[in-house]
DNA sequence: CCGTCAACATTGTTTGACGATTTCGTGTGA
DNA sequence: TCACACGAAATCGTCAAACAATGTTGACGG
C-alpha cells in the first residue's frame, strides 16, 4: 500500500469522501459529484460564505441539474457537515462558532496524530518520502503565495497524503477534513501574518518527522501544530466567529 | 450542558447522526428517517446481512416510500459507511474484512478515549452520574440476556451518553458508531461466551471511572477495552470476516 | 469450452405535480 | 405608532412516471 491512492475500480469507499481532491469536476462525473465539487470549491474561493442560505431553485439553474439530484447531493454534504439542513427551511453553508472550532480541533487532533504515526511507520520507500516532501513543499508555496483556495486544497492534499501513507482506510472516512475547510474559510481572512506563518511552518515539521520515520516525533509535531492553532484561535477577536444561531 | 441530549428544536445537527436511538421510527418521522431506522434495525436484528444487495424497487415497496426519498436515504447511509454505493450496481450493506475491523478499532479508540476523558471531567451532577450508571447497567443486562439487537442499541446508547456528557458536539458527528454496528453484527454470532463477557464488562469499568471523575482512569479503561476487543478479533477464525470484494 | 451479442434488469437522471410549512408583507384594531 | 392576525408567496418534502446509461444474464455460434 501507500503507493497510489486510487481504489480498485472507482469502488465503494470513494464516493463517500465528499471531496474530489485531484479531479477538478470534469465532465463525466456524476451529477452529485458536480454539486459537491462546486460547493466545496465555492467555499474555498469565497463564493459561498459560511452561513449562506442555499436555495434549491437557484442551484439547480446554476449547476444545470435536476432538483432530485441536487437534493441527494445536499444530503451527502450535510452528512459531511459542510451544509446544515433545516426541515422546510432549506440548506445553509455550515458555520462554526468558537466553541465548535475548539471542539473540532479536539476531535481532529487525535486522528491527525494517529495518521502521522502510521505514516511515519510506513514511509519507507524513497517514492513515499518524495510524495510527503512534495506535499509539504506545495502547502508552503501556496501559504506564502496567498492564494486561499489553493492553500486550502494543498492543505487537504497534505492530509490525504499522510492518511494514504498510513494505510488506514477508516481514517480517511472519519477525518472531518471538509469541515476544517469551513473553519479555515472563516479564519483565513482575519488571522495575522505571523499566525499564518506559524500555521504553515507546522506542516513542514510534520513532514520532516514522517520522512525520518520517527513516529514519536511526528506525533509531537502534530500536537505542537494543534497547540499553535488553538493559540491562534484564542487570539482571534470574537467577531471572527459568527454566532451559530439556526 | 450534559443534561439532555435533545437539541434545541429538531435542529441542524440532528439529522446528520444517522441513528435515531430512542424513538423507534414513529409515524411522524420524515421518509428518510424511516429508511435509516429500518436498515439499521435490520442490521441489528439480522434481517439484513453484511454484503447484502439492496434493490431499490424492493425497498420502496416494503417501506412504502418513493424512489427519490429512498435514494436520498441511501446517500445518507452511504456517507455514514453503513451501505456502499456502486455506480449502476446499486447499494450493498457494508462489509468489513479483518483489516477494516482493525483499522476501525484504531480509528475509534482515540476518539472514544477523548470522549471518556471529557465525560469524566463533566460528570459532576448526581443526575449525570446516574445517567452514566444506568447506561452501563442496561448494556450489561442486555449483554447477559443475549438479545443481540437490544445489546447493540444499548451499546450505542452508552456511547451517546458518554459523548453527550463530554459536551463536544463534533465528536458525535465524527465517531463512526453506525459502522461499529456493522462490525458487531458480523462478530456477535461467532465470538465465544468468554469473549462476549470480557467485552461487556469493559463498559462497566469505563462507567465507573467516569462516575469517579477520574479522566486518566477513564482513558485507561477505554484503552484496555479496545485492547481486549483487538485480542478477540485476533482469536476469531478467518471465516468470520467475509472478503470485501466489490 | 470460450467469446459475442442481444435482451433484460437495475440504476442515474430528469420533469412535473401536489401538499406542508415557513416567511414576509399587509391590513386592522388598540 | 405598535402589536397582532391574516393571507399570499416562496420554499421544501414527497411522490409518480418516464427515458437514458450501464451492468448482468443467457443464447448462440465457433
TrEMBL record, chains A, B:
SUPFAM superfamilies: GntR ligand-binding domain-like, Winged helix' DNA-binding domain. Keywords: DNA-binding, Transcription, Transcription regulation. The keyword DNA-binding applies. InterPro entries: GntR_C, TF_FadR/GntR_C, Tscrpt_reg_HTH_GntR, WH-like_DNA-bd_sf, WH_DNA-bd_sf. Residues 29-96 form the HTH gntR-type domain. The keyword Transcription applies. SMART domains: FCD, HTH_GNTR. It comes from the Bacteria. This is DNA-binding GntR family transcriptional regulator. It comes from Sphingobium boeckii. GO terms for molecular function: DNA binding; DNA-binding transcription factor activity. CDD domains: WHTH_GntR. PROSITE patterns: HTH_GNTR.
Amino acid at each position: 500500500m501507500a503507493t497510489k491512492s486510487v481504489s480498485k475500480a472507482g469502488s465503494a469507499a470513494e464516493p463517500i469522501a465528499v471531496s474530489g481532491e485531484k479531479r477538478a469536476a470534469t465532465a463525466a462525473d456524476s451529477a452529485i459529484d458536480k454539486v459537491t465539487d462546486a460547493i466545496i470549491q465555492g467555499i474555498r474561493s469565497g463564493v459561498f460564505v459560511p452561513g449562506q442560505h442555499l436555495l434549491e431553485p437557484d442551484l439547480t439553474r446554476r449547476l444545470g441539474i435536476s432538483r432530485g439530484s441536487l437534493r441527494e447531493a445536499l444530503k451527502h454534504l450535510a452528512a459531511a457537515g459542510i451544509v446544515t439542513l433545516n426541515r422546510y427551511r432549506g440548506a445553509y453553508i455550515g458555520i462554526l462558532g468558537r466553541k465548535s472550532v475548539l471542539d473540532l480541533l479536539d476531535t481532529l487532533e487525535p486522528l491527525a496524530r494517529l495518521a502521522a504515526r502510521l505514516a511515519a511507520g510506513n514511509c519507507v520507500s524513497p517514492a513515499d518520502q518524495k510524495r510527503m516532501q512534495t506535499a509539504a513543499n506545495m502547502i508552503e508555496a501556496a501559504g506564502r503565495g496567498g492564494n486561499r483556495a489553493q492553500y486550502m486544497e494543498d492543505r487537504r492534499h497534505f492530509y490525504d497524503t499522510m492518511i494514504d501513507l498510513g494505510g488506514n482506510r477508516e481514517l480517511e472516512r472519519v477525518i472531518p477534513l471538509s469541515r476544517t475547510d469551513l473553519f479555515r474559510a472563516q479564519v483565513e481572512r482575519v488571522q495575522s501574518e505571523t499566525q499564518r506563518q506559524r500555521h504553515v511552518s507546522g506542516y513542514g515539521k510534520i513532514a520532516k518527522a514522517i520522512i525520518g520515520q520517527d513516529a514519536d516525533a511526528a506525533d509531537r509535531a502534530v500536537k505542537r501544530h494543534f497547540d499553535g492553532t488553538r493559540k491562534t484561535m484564542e487570539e482571534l477577536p470574537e467577531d471572527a466567529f459568527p454566532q451559530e444561531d439556526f
